[in-house]
Amino acid sequence: MTGLVLEGGAMRGLFTAGILDVLMEHNVMFDGVVGVSAGAAFGINFVSRQLGRPLRYNQRFARDWRYCSFLSWLTTGDLFGAQFAYHDVPSLYDPFDNAAFESSPTEFHLVCTDVESGEAFYKQLHEGGHLAYDWVRASASMPMVSRPVSLEGHLLLDGGVADSIPLSYFERQGFKRNVVVLTQPSGYQKEHNRLMPLLRLSLRKYPAMVAALDRRHTMYNAQLEYVAQREAEGTALVIRPDGKLPIGHVSHDPAEMQTVYDIGRAAAQRKLDEIIRFIETDKEERHQQ
Predict the structure, then answer these.
(1) Helix (H, G, I), strand (E, B) or coil at 3
(2) 156 vs 89, 124, 159, 173, 221, CA distance in Å?
(3) Rg (CA), the chain
(4) pLDDT (tens digit, 9 = 90+) per residue, 186-219?
């Protein structure tokens, strides 16, 4: 089976959104998608086949305090408004196509981090609706600027803390050939988080989560090595930006968002023929078996 692995990166995820739209425009399909953080929030739209949706609602609400703001953080505990961004937008303002998501033959998985154990928590979503939106919110809830999300007896935050690039997880699920979308350029290495003193303070009730954050750079860099190994073996095809994306974790500038989205589109168009051959090779191998 062929999988699509989407790392996070907050607003860098609009690079991924551009890639996904090009793939949808050319009717490129995968057997499964796994997303982390922004990779989950934007990747779920690939399964529901909603072209342009992540860029559209991010640009529309770029300067709406209810969507993402310091005021939202002060008044609700969440930088990205839990109710407005994750329930009002997909229900009222830019509806998520739950029926299309549920009828899709493509599996959708996401990654969260259990704040009490510091370990990755994986979830496959079968149904849309408000519970699914909360799972996406949990995967994308950045530490220190988000409240932990309580689901299935777990307190959850950003999946990128415990498993930033879940290629190994997807291989264990049976997806042996995977397209991997990274939001950092070749040669990038994550450094130790300079905000650890503040993270230790804000998450002092969850020492395992603090420990996971403290070693995240080591985990991430090891995952980059694993991706490179699989790429050399021919079982992974990697799409990444050519250089550092011109956007921060948070953006209130629609033009900046458009630029990053367009960079993603261009990257996908350059790789399109290679992606199609990669998927066709998997189909041919399965047919021969």
Answers:
(1) strand
(2) 22, 15, 8, 22, 23
(3) 18
(4) 999 999 999 999 999 999 999 999 999 999 999 9
Residue 18 CA to residue 28 CA, distance in Å, equals 14
Q: How far is Cα 26 from Cα 159, in angstroms, rounded to an integer? A: 30
Query: Distance (Å, rounded) from C-alpha 166 to C-alpha 110?
Result: 9
Q: What is the C-alpha separation between 285 and 228, in angstroms, rounded?
A: 23
User: Contact, 203 vs 143, CB < 8 A?
Assistant: yes
- Residues facing 125 on adjacent strands: 108
Q: What are the E-state strand segments in 43-136?
A: 107-114, 120-125
Asked if 159 contacts 110 with a C-beta cutoff of 8 angstroms, the reply is yes
Q: Report yes or no: 44 and 136 within 8 Å, Cβ to Cβ.
A: yes
- Among candidate residues 6, 86, 18, the one with its CA nearest the CA of residue 51: 18
Per-residue model confidence as pLDDT tens digits over 164-178: 999 999 999 999 999
Residue 157, strand partner residues: 113
CB-based contact 59:258 (threshold 8 Å): yes
**Helix, strand, or coil here: 14?**
helix
Average pLDDT of every residue of the chain: 96
Q: What's the rounded Cα separation, in Å, for the pair 246 and 103?
A: 36
- Strands (DSSP E) found in 84-202: 107-114, 120-125, 149-151, 154-158, 177-181
**Kind of pairing between the strands at 107-114 and 32-36:** parallel
